[in-house]
Amino acid sequence: MAERGKPVARPPATGASPADADPALVLELLDDAAIAALLPERPARGHKGTFGKLLVIAGSLDYAGAALLVCRAAGRAGAGLVTLAVPESLQPLFAAKVVEATTMGLPEDDVEEVQPEDALARILDHEHDAVVVGPGLRPGLATAELIVGLLAVEDESSRPSAVVDAEALRSLAVRDEWWERVHCPCVLTPHAGEFARLRAASGVASDEDGDLATDDTAREAAVRDAARRWRQVVVLKGAKTVIGAPDGRAAQAPFENPALASGGTGDVLAGTIGALLAQGLAPYDAARVGVYLHGAAGEVLRDRLGDAGVLAGDLPFEITLARKRLAVR
Q1: Is 236 helix (H, G, I), strand (E, B) or coil?
Q2: How far is residue 83's CA from residue 169's CA, in Å, rounded to a whole number?
Q3: Of 249, 235, 214, nearest in space to 290 by CA
Q4: Would you say 85 and 57 are in contact if contact means Cβ atoms under 8 Å apart?
Q5: pLDDT given for residue 17 in this prediction
Q6: pLDDT at position 93, please?
Q7: Consecutive 10-residue runs of the chain (329 residues): their mean pLDDT?
Q8: DSSP string, 264-296
Q9: Which of 108, 8, 113 is nearest to 60 (CA)?
Q10: Which of 40, 50, 159, 222 could make an SS bond with 209 (beta carbons 3.0 to 4.6 A apart)?
C-alpha cells in the first residue's frame, strides 16, 4: 500500500522502467505536509485588502442558505473581504443575514430574475480578486446567460479566477462544447451527476467513464481527461475527492466520510476554494488546499459527533482550526 503523501506512479508500459513513468501520470496523495507548504502567507502587517476580495454570486429565495454558507466559509478560510451579489429584490433579505460580508444588488427584469447584461456590467465594475458562482442560484435563462457571459469575458484585466459550482455547472452542461466559451481560469466543482452531464456535453457517455462513485481508478482517469479537454481545474467531489489540472497532474484526498453527506457541504467547499483563490493561490493549488481543509474539518466533526448529524454550518469554524494546525507545522 502506498504511503499517504507520497506520489504513486501507475505501472509503466511493458518494457519500461518506473523511471520512465510520465510525471503527469503520478497521482499525488494529499497529506498535512503537502498542504501546509501551499498555504498562503499571512504577513503581520497585512490588512483586509491584503487577503483578497471575493465576490459570491449565489443564492435565491428557495436556496438562501447556500449563499450564506459560501460567505461564511470564505471568511473562515481567510478571505479579507467577501461580497454577496443577489438580485436587487432579495438584497434586503440577505443583508439582514450576512454579518461579515457586504451585499450588492443585481439589476432585475422581474422579481428575483436578473437582467443579464446590466448585472454583468455591475459585476465587472466591482473590484474583486476571485468569484464563486452558482450555489443556490435560481434556474432560468437569465441566470444561464449571466453565468455564460461572466465566464466568457476575454479581457484579462476583467476576468477573475472563478469557482464554478451547482447551477453554474448545470448552465454550462446544456451547451455543446461549452468549454470553448469559458475564458476565465476556473475550478469546476461537480459531484458525480454534474460531472456526467458536463461530460455528456463533451460527447462522453457516462458508461465510458465507468463507476464514478466507487471506482477510484475510473474517477482519476475521468478527471484527468476532463481537465485536459476543458483546460480547467476539475474537482470531482465524493469519497476520496480527485482534483485534476489541465497539464495532466492529479491529486487525491484521503477522506471517506459519510458525515459530510448532507446538504450544504458543497457550498462550504466552494467558499473555501474561492477564498484561497482570492488570497492569490493558483487554481490547482487552491483546489487542493480547499479540498483538504474541508475534508480535515469533516474528520474532526466525525470524531466528535459521529457519522450522522453533522451540519454544513458546523464546518467553517473547523476549517479555520484545520488551517491553524497546518500553519504551525
Answers
A1: strand
A2: 21
A3: 235
A4: yes
A5: 40
A6: 96
A7: 42 40 82 98 94 98 97 98 98 96 97 96 97 97 97 89 98 95 97 96 90 96 98 98 98 98 98 98 98 98 98 98 94
A8: THHHHHHHHHHHHHHTT--HHHHHHHHHHHHHH
A9: 113
A10: 222
- Contacts of 196 by beta carbon, 8 Å cutoff, 6+ apart: 206, 209, 212
- Rounded-to-integer distance, Cα 67 and Cα 258, Å: 23
Its pTM stands at 0.93
Name residue 145's amino acid.
Answer: E
> What's the grid cell of residue 84?
454577496
Cβ–Cβ < 8 Å for 112, 142: no
Q: What is the pLDDT of residue 206?
A: 80
Give the dihedral of Cα atoms 228, 231, 235, 240; nearest 10 deg.
Answer: 20
pLDDT for the residue 12: 38
User: In this predicted structure, what is the pLDDT of residue 159?
Assistant: 87
What is the pLDDT, as a whole number, of residue 10? Answer: 45
Give me the long-range contacts of 100-107 (CB less than 8 A, separation at least 24): 100/71, 100/72, 100/75, 101/56, 101/71, 101/74, 101/75, 104/55
DSSP 8-state secondary structure symbol assigned to residue 61: S
Q: Which alpha helices (DSSP H) does the chain contain, by range?
A: 32-36, 64-76, 91-95, 116-125, 141-151, 167-173, 192-200, 206-209, 216-230, 265-278, 283-305, 315-327
**Can you name the residues that pair with 188 across neighbouring β-strands?**
164, 234
Of 188, 216, 310, nearest in space to 257 by CA? 310
Which three three-digit cell numbers place residue 43?
504577513
